Target: Sulfite oxidase
Amino acid sequence: MAQGALRGPSGYSREPPRHPSLRINAKEPFNAEPARRDLAAAYITPIDLFFKRNHGPIPVLDDIDSYYVTVGGLAGGPRRLSLDDIRKLPKYNVTATLQCAGNRRTEMSKSRKVRGVGWDVCALGNATWGGAKLSDVLQLVGVPYHTEITPSGGKHVEFVSVDQCPEEKGGPYKASIPLGQATNPAADVLLAYEMNGKVLKRDHGYPLRAIVPGVIGARSVKWLDRIDIIEEESQGFFMQKDYKMFPPSVDWDNIVWSTRKPQMDYPVQSAICSLEDVGTVKPGQVIVAGYALSGGGRGIERVDISPDCGKSWFEAHRYQKQGIPYVAGNITSDKWAWVLFEAIVDVKGDTEIVAKAVDSSANVQPESVESIWNLRGILNTCWHRVRLLATPNLRSFM
Model:
């Protein structure tokens, strides 16, 4: 295993330091998300407030001089690449949102119980990732741009981590993407060694991780050990027996994993972050703010806000970068990143405020969680609702 030096019991040491405001959803393995207001406070999510998603103990790779990633499989090679080799390739900075497929799982579980880490609405974050494009790396082993299949039959690229997951019986986390996506420079798939202009931290994949924009975060594998060209999709647990979307009729007694493809793109999504699920406010103007995003590089065409439980609607203001108007698909907009929104609602009494987004392909969030319920609790993208209780003696939220 090309992993440099792993330190501590069984190759792991103590947990890295974390921001005290994070909401811890699981301690072993460590999974945590920021508070809603912290998440929506900035377009670029601060590293310490970026959600933490792990399936096993967090490895320590501290001997960078001996670290390398092996690139091979059904192509040329294998070839060992050090971090210096990867840094010599052209560097790209890509602003992209990573979202856990289980984001908003807690809300889905209220309809009917699901299995998985109980996330609120903050199992995502937006960062600027720096690194080499995977398409450039694959050229080093003889795979040209825009290759759908290699002469030896390779059609997928599998990322293999150095970590150890119980679901893999102590083996490494692994996931794959289509070769055509991996070899397309415009897909912006990165081997990233920086996050927000700084060296990756352990929680986020130090020293090297994959960033696959526009798809669920489970495919952006951390702590890379190998990159293999393979004939079929990865046969790892998290591709074949997890992160698949089943209809509400399927339960743990009748599930057949092979009947569904591994989930890749995520649907259009939005959530209100300026308010909790049930909040007490003073009658008057209230700020309703949050995020919206869609998979596959699709932009956000609208964010609709209802001040009265869906009876009437108006459009929220959308933005990414200060001073630059957001236009879906425009060169000035970040195609892989979320869009923040803000609206003012005049609250006269108790009410329910609803947010729903529409992407550039006219996909709309579904109204209810019941229609998209699934036993793993993934891709909860129903309208996001918060209840407001109007109390005259409170300070305004403006």
